[in-house]
Structures are given as C-alpha cells and as structure tokens.
Amino acid sequence: MPKRHFSLKRALAISFAALLLASLAIVGAGVAWLRMPLSLPADKVDFVIDEGTTMRGIARQVREAGIAVPPEVLIAYARVTGTERRIKAGGYEVARGDSLWTLLNRLARGDVTQREIRFIEGWNFRQIRAALRRHPDVRQTLDGLDDATVTAKIGASTSHPEGLFFPDTYLFAVGSSDIDILRRAYRAQQRELAEIWAQRDPDLPLGSPYEVLILASIIEKETGMEADRRRIAGVFVNRLRVGMPLQTDPTVIYGLGEVFDGNLRRRDLRADTPWNTYTRRGLPPTPISNPGRASLLAAVQPEKHKYLYFVSRGDGTSAFSETLDSHNRYVARYQLRGLQPPPSMQTEAVQP
C-alpha cells in the first residue's frame, strides 16, 4: 500500500512536470511568435484608431489594413500583456520587420505617425479646402457641406469662413479628419487675433478684431514685401479716416469669385459686389484671404504718414504718393510705361 501511494505521487509529479514543461514551451513559443516579423502587404502600412474604439474594433482595423494577425490572437496578446487598457487613439504606421510586440508597444505608447499640411499666407478658403481634399492622409468629411455648415462645425460665430484660419504648417496623425485640422487652424487664428488686438494703436479706426482681420487680409494680398507692409496699412488707414474708398484690386477679384480669369478689366472695377471697394466705401463685409501674423500686426500698427496712394513698381515693391497727380505719374511710369493714364485711372480716387 505505501508503495502504491509512492508510485501515485511520483506519477503526479511527473505529470505536473510534463504539464509545466508544455506550458513553458507554449509560453516560449508565444514569446517567440510575438517577436517574429509581421507579414505586411507593403513596406509600410497605416491604420487609424478612433477615440473610443474597442479592442475588437482595433483588431479588425489592423486586419483590414492587411497586417496578418488574426483578431482573436491580437486581442488575446493585448489582454495578456496589459496593452488593451493603454491603447491610445491616433494614426499608426507598421513597417516591414516590425513584430507584434513592436506593434503592441507602439499602441500602448501612443506613438502615432505624423503628417503635415501647410496653409499659405494669402490663401482663400477655397484653396484651403482644396489642399485638405488633395492630402492622401486626411480623412475627408467635408464633401457636400457648404461653407456655413463648416463654420458651424468648427464653432465660429460667423457663417463666412474667409480669414478664419491661421496660415501655418500643421502636424497631424494619419487619418485625422479635415474638420479637426480646420478647427485647430481656426483656434490658432483666434489666439493670434486676440493677442494682436491687444497691441493695437489707440487711435486705430477699426472697431473690432474682425475688422482687423478684414484689413489684414487685404494687406496680405497687396504685398509680400515686409518693408512695404506697414506703409500700405497706413495708406488704407488714412483712407478710412477721411472716408475715401479703399480702391484695392484684390477685393474686386475676390468679389468676382471663380469667374475671374486672371485678367482684371475696367468693367470689373465697375461691377458692384459687396467686396468692390471701388464702388463701395469702407471695409468689405468679410476678409478676402487668410492673413498671417505680419499682416495682422501691420493692420493694428500701421506706419504713420500722409500717403493716400500706392502703385506696384513691378518688382514686388510699391511707390507711394500723397497726391493724385504724383500717383498718376507713378502709374504712367511703372504700369503704363510712359503712356498717359486713361481718365478712369486719373480720377480713380477722390481727394479728401
């Protein structure tokens, strides 16, 4: 009897040892499998995890991206390693040679891939929408939405989107939506505008930050020369003070919209739109572009002088005048090449 008991104990010990060895072998195989390179359909594969996605949803997105990991396996390893509770939303990239262990750690760290998009100073909203639409890593949600709907989605108080987006380079995770990027650019412009409004000259004839935005958008389109920016701002401020029309071509072009063919004609200057500053006095009702910081600063801190006119020299700089006669001579020199300006150009602005 004691001998049989000893044999039973020995058999149990052997069975336990065998089970332990088998378990260790399975664990070892599992660890080895975790370290093996994943099978990918390309050298790099991107996928996006949206906020609030479940582990099963994450496993499905990984599988749909072409990464050869059975969803049940990914879920099991995420739970065993504790990764499931730490996965962060965002866009991720898996490269050839990466293992499942690498992927799980990347998800837990929130090591999202970054892309960039640049909004240029002076772009209008139509150009910004086109840039977002062209970018292969931006998730498209704006198709079919009009401008008023877009501005409502970003939380703007105006239904007109022009000028609301700060020109800058924005980094984003692959799969970020176009509306999220616009919302960031809108908030950046609001911060810039608030800061710059606090630095305005005390006698500035502008009644609100939005009017600063309008004037800055015109300055942005009139010159790219840093040396002329504040001086051109001063011309417009002088005209506003004495009630002269701003008479700036970029506002007319903006009012023409997509029908503008690149050639501004005399009849265009007479075609009345809300943005035609030849036919209407004061500022136009909205910005005409998205101005950068330099133009915003110029609008609130214009150069103090007596100039009421300026004309492009054709090299990026401008010639400034206090009188219409002097201005017309500059027009003849730089734009008409010595020809007498036509009557409409000779009287294009009314002396105060």
Which descriptors apply to this entry?
single chain; 352 residues; mainly alpha; Dna Ligase, domain 1; 6 strands; 48% helix; cell inner membrane; Endolytic murein transglycosylase; cell wall biogenesis/degradation; transmembrane; membrane
How many domains would you count in the coordinates? 3
Query: What percentage of amino acids are in beta strands?
Result: 5-15%
Assembly classification:
single chain
What's the tally of helices?
14
Termini Cα gap = 125 Å
Catalytic activity: a peptidoglycan chain = a peptidoglycan chain with N-acetyl-1,6-anhydromuramyl-[peptide] at the reducing end + a peptidoglycan chain with N-acetylglucosamine at the non-reducing end
Keywords: Cell inner membrane, Cell membrane, Cell wall biogenesis/degradation, Lyase, Membrane, Transmembrane, Transmembrane helix
EC number: 4.2.2.29
InterPro entries: MLTG-like
Short description:
The chain is built from 14 helices and six strands. The chain is mainly alpha-helical and 352 residues long.
Detailed description of the structure:
- The protein folds into three domains: 34-112, Dna Ligase, domain 1 (2-Layer Sandwich); 114-195, no CATH class; 201-346, no CATH class.
- The protein contains 14 helices and six strands.
- The chain has helices at 2-35, 55-64, 71-80, 100-109, 125-134, 147-154, 178-197, 209-222, 226-242, 249-256, 266-270, 293-300, 324-334, 343-346, and strands at 44-49, 90-95, 114-118, 169-173, 309-312, 318-321.
- The strands form three sheets. It has a two-stranded antiparallel ribbon. Strands 3-4 form a two-stranded antiparallel sheet. Strands 5-6 form a two-stranded antiparallel sheet.
- Strand 5 (309-312) and strand 6 form a beta hairpin.
- Helix 7 runs parallel beside helix 12.
- It starts with a helix and ends in a 6-residue tail after the last helix.
- It comes from Pigmentiphaga daeguensis.
- Its EC number is 4.2.2.29.
